[in-house]
């Protein structure tokens, strides 16, 4: 997979991640961003699923062949929206890679931080953050407390804190 990633320089890849997310949110002028609508408009169906014995371990995954995002129905809504946005990131950014190399695709664990060397997971996380909290909608209210921003965008406080540090 490193061959595929080395084709485009890292800086350009991060720009693409942000631009692709911003493009998908361009039609929306107020938060929260309707992530399910965006996902389905991007050609992938969102399915809230019962993960049975894996409900405490798995947040979601993408079925690239059937164009479906499966999301843990047990998770709270803000987690579900992040999972949808994250998996949509894989759909939009990495679909060709994972269709060619299905063994490289990781199911999204419920509680996870992307490993420093896992560029695709980092990109999917970044895509999710930019999709859920577009910079142009955040900028006018940037000085509000993190908890208020999280509430406005309907994301977790943790996600908002991480996004603010990395924007």
Structure report:
There is one protein chain. With about 170 residues, the chain is α+β, with helices and mostly antiparallel strands. The protein has one domain (about 1-165): Arc Repressor Mutant, subunit A (Orthogonal Bundle). The protein has helices spanning about 1-5, 10-25, 35-40, 75-100, 120-130, 135-140, 145-155, 155-165, and strands spanning about 45-50, 60-65, 70, 110. Strands 1-3-2-4 form a 4-stranded mixed sheet. Strand 2 and strand 3 form a beta hairpin. Helix 2 (about 10-25) runs parallel beside helix 5, helix 4 (about 75-100) crosses helix 5 (about 120-130) and helix 7 (about 145-155) packs across helix 8.
